[in-house]
Specification:
heterodimer; A: 15 helices; 4 strands; B: Translation Initiation Factor IF3; four-stranded mixed beta sheet; 2 helices
Chain lengths: ~375, ~70
């Protein structure tokens, strides 16, 4: 009899509730939490891309990293580790980001979109599952990014330090930053609410090891339903919450910050899923691991921020459907994004094959 | 013995899974260096007919002794 992990269920419930509260508090629709979107906003806020609608320093991200750090320190799990192919992880982080932004959401937002009745996100879910399946095949064939090593404690504080610096900039020196005047970047909850939600979710995610990609991966790989129980709980809580709050609108047309370019949603999330399995965790998990002192995950997060900037600078991110004055304008993934996704899939294949290891000999 | 120190999850579990599938050993020692791997390897072992004894070793490392349940 497999035990139910109540900590995982509780984490999923809190993530779902936090997402609902943040959307009610001012975050964009079905975007209470979105690691990809928020890292993209941070890239914009720092001026790394010039897409005017998506620029803001999202305190949720800062909270997630710092919350994970505090919980890891409290539980004596904060350990500075690094040295497992950092450059490759940087690239993989960028690829995951590009795929997720074509779809318009990280795996966590995909679940939140589904819970809000966004039928278009089903294409993303199917692609995500397909990508994870590819990643699992690679793991079974001997894919590995290799060992990390103990390093000086300072390495573990790099990403938490960057996040603390962003918070200081946001509060004390916003003149250095860019802020959207319109679009999703201009729509956000009060910073303290966002930060608090991030801290709580970060702490719980550290303790429970919640991971959106890991949930489906472990079902394929080990028939283990521990991680996916968190994934399902988030969906159920967001769904029930939306129904109660009258925010559940099951439809394919004009969902908040979404498009119905199904094929490219599928392929974009396939890149995100495959890349996440190669990295050992989804974008949320990378933030949490970086908070625990993992320098490789910190590099991955920096890769995701740069990937977000490139996505927008090259016009590869998805465009949302829009309804203005009764006129429907279809969004979708432009040619640049389609080419990017295809290149991403080829790169994932090359990286996967290049990192196959013969079986470790048992000593 | 499997030395999974330095590997992030799910790699330690993948390494154990391969060893278990290949030979189905009566006993298997696994070295890991993080709490997450301890939990994941223990859960995998428990779900696959092994009893687990966790022994903290030096320097934040753990030695897991897996024994086939009769």
């Amino acid at each position: 009899m497999k035990k139910i992990n109540w900590l995982m269920i509780a984490t999923g419930a809190v993530v779902g509730l936090a997402a609902l509260i943040l959307s009610l508090g001012g975050n964009p629709g079905n975007m209470g939490f979105c690691i990809a979107c928020f890292l993209r906003d941070i890239a914009g806020g720092l001026g790394l891309h010039s897409a005017g609608k998506v620029q803001y320093i999202r305190p949720e991200i800062i909270g997630l990293v710092l919350g994970a750090m505090l919980m890891a320190m409290a539980g004596k799990e904060f350990k500075a580790r690094a040295g497992s192919v950092p450059a490759l992880r940087f690239v993989l982080g960028g690829l995951v980001m590009m795929g997720a932004l074509a779809f318009l959401g990280c795996p966590l937002r995909m679940v939140i979109r589904l819970g809000g009745g966004d039928v278009t996100a089903i294409a993303g879910l199917l692609g995500f599952i397909a990508g994870i399946f590819c990643g699992v095949l690679c793991l079974k064939q001997g894919f590995s990014l290799g060992r990390a090593y103990k390093v000086k404690k300072a390495e573990g504080f790099v990403l938490p330090g960057i996040m603390a610096a962003l918070l200081v900039l946001l509060l004390a020196a916003p003149a250095f930053l860019k802020f959207s005047q319109e679009g999703p970047g201009s729509v956000h909850a009060f910073w303290l609410v966002s930060l608090a939600a991030g801290l709580v979710v970060g702490a719980l995610a550290q303790k429970s090891r919640l991971c959106m990609a890991g949930g489906i991966r472990d079902v394929f790989l080990f028939r283990d339903f521990n991680l996916i129980s968190g994934f399902i709980t988030i969906f159920v809580v967001v769904l029930v919450g939306n129904v109660i709050l009258n925010g559940f609108h099951p439809a394919a047309a004009v969902q908040p910050i979404a498009h119905h370019d199904y094929l490219w949603s599928f392929l974009g999330m396939m890149v995100a899923g495959w890349g996440s399995v190669l990295l050992g965790g989804c974008p949320l998990r990378q933030l949490i691991l970086a908070g625990e002192g993992n320098g490789d995950s910190a590099v991955t997060v920096l890769g995701m921020i740069v990937g977000a900037a490139i996505s927008h600078n090259f016009g590869m991110a998805g465009n949302a459907d829009a309804m203005k004055d009764g006129v429907f304008t279809a969004g979708g993934v432009a040619m640049a994004g389609r080419v990017g996704i295809m290149i991403g899939l080829v790169m994932l294949l090359v990286i996967s094959v290049a990192n196959l290891h013969k079986e470790e000999k048992a000593k | 013995m499997i030395d999974a120190r330095g590997y992030a999850c799910p790699m330690p579990v993948v390494m154990v899974q391969k060893a278990v599938k290949k030979d189905g050993p009566e006993a298997l020692e696994v070295l890991v260096d993080n709490q997450c791997a301890v939990e994941n390897v223990s859960r995998f072992a428990g779900n696959n007919g092994y009893a687990v004894e966790v022994r903290p070793a030096e320097d934040d490392e753990f030695s897991l002794l897996l024994k086939k349940r009769q």
